[in-house]
Specification:
Shape: globular
Strand order of the largest sheet: 2-1-3-4
Bound molecules: zinc ion
Structural class: alpha+beta
Strand content: 5-15%
Helix content: 40-55%
Radius of gyration: 19 Å
Number of strands: 4
Length: about 210
């Protein structure tokens, strides 16, 4: 990993400000904004009745996750990205319906949010996900750098219904050659040419 990535992590991750939960009417307004276009997941998936102390953003994500199961669209996962008290993007798991193993709810929500903000960082954003992120989504979250992440179901809950991420965590800790999917070094000298070009480029956009 390039040094610039790591160096930029600490200043970007400033202490998050305390956020108070928005009112239900604020969230309902946010959900009716134009990004929720026809053909996307219907807002009719809608609200479960919010009880006091429930977070409306997480409630929205949970409603989407339940609808995603009912519709047969994908796994029981959803996520929303919130900025300034407004939902700016949402994602549901679409692995099986799009034949895309990377189509996890968090990745889709992050992509949507970044597109909407026209930025490759989710600065000052919050991610609400219905389940503790898998290693892939955790990586995407660290690249996107939101201020914080809220999760509902735990990784253990997911494991109990057949979504077990522990294999990936274990694999990451093993030497390349001992992994179930072998990682084989090849043509490093030639590939370093791109890194040298990057280091020498004066007008690059670091990220
Ligand atoms: Zn994931």
């Amino acid at each position: 990993m390039a040094r610039t990535h790591l160096a930029r992590f600490s200043p970007t991750f400033s202490a998050p400000r305390r956020t108070s939960f928005p009112s239900r009417s604020q969230v309902e307004r946010a959900c009716k904004t134009s990004w929720l276009r026809a053909g996307e997941i219907s807002i009719a998936a809608g609200w479960t009745e919010l009880r006091d102390q429930e977070n409306p953003f997480m409630a929205r994500a949970i409603a989407l996750s339940i609808e995603n199961v009912r519709s047969g669209n994908g796994g029981p996962f959803a996520a929303v990205v919130v900025k300034d008290g407004e939902i700016i993007a949402q994602g549901v798991n679409q692995v099986t319906s799009t034949n895309d193993p990377t189509a996890h709810a968090e990745v889709i929500a992050i992509r949507e949010a970044c597109k909407r903000l026209a930025d490759f960082e989710l600065k000052d954003c919050e991610l609400y996900t219905t389940c503790e992120p898998c290693p892939m989504c955790l990586g995407a979250i660290y690249w996107a750098r939101p201020a914080r992440v809220y999760f509902a179901n735990t990784a253990e809950d997911a494991s109990k219904i057949g979504f077990d991420d522990t294999l990936i965590y274990k694999e990451a800790a093993r030497p390349h050659s001992e992994r179930k999917i072998p990682m084989i070094p090849l043509m490093r000298e030639q590939a370093l040419e791109a890194f040298r070009a990057w280091e020498e480029k004066g007008d690059k956009t670091p990220y």
